[in-house]
C-alpha cells in the first residue's frame, strides 16, 4: 500500500489545478476594483454642483 502522505499530496495537487486563479489573485483583483471605485468617487466628487 502506498504511503498515505503521498496520496494526500497527489490529491491536493489535483484539486489545486481546478481551483482557478487562487485566493491571492482573487484578493488582488477585488482590492483593485474597490480601489478604482474609491478613486473614481474621490476624483468625481469635486465635480458636483457648487452653487
Question: What structural keywords apply?
Answer:
51 residues, mainly alpha, 0% strand
Walk me through what this model shows.
The chain is an all-alpha fold. The chain has a domain at 21-51. The protein is 71% helix and 0% strand. It has 2 helices and no strands. It has helices at 4-17, 23-44. The longest helix has 22 residues, at 23-44. The protein starts with a helix and ends in a 7-residue tail after the last helix.
Could you give a quick summary of the protein structure above?
0% of the residues are buried. The protein has helices at 4-17, 23-44. Helix content is 71%, strand content 0%.
Produce the secondary structure layout:
Layout: H1 4-17, H2 23-44
Structural class, please? Answer: mainly alpha
Rg, Cα atoms, Å: 22 Å
Q: Please report the distance between the alpha carbons of the first and last residues.
A: 81 Å
Mean pLDDT: 77
Query: Strand fraction band?
Result: under 5%
What oligomerization state is this entry in?
single chain
Shape: rod-shaped
Q: Give me the number of helical elements.
A: 2
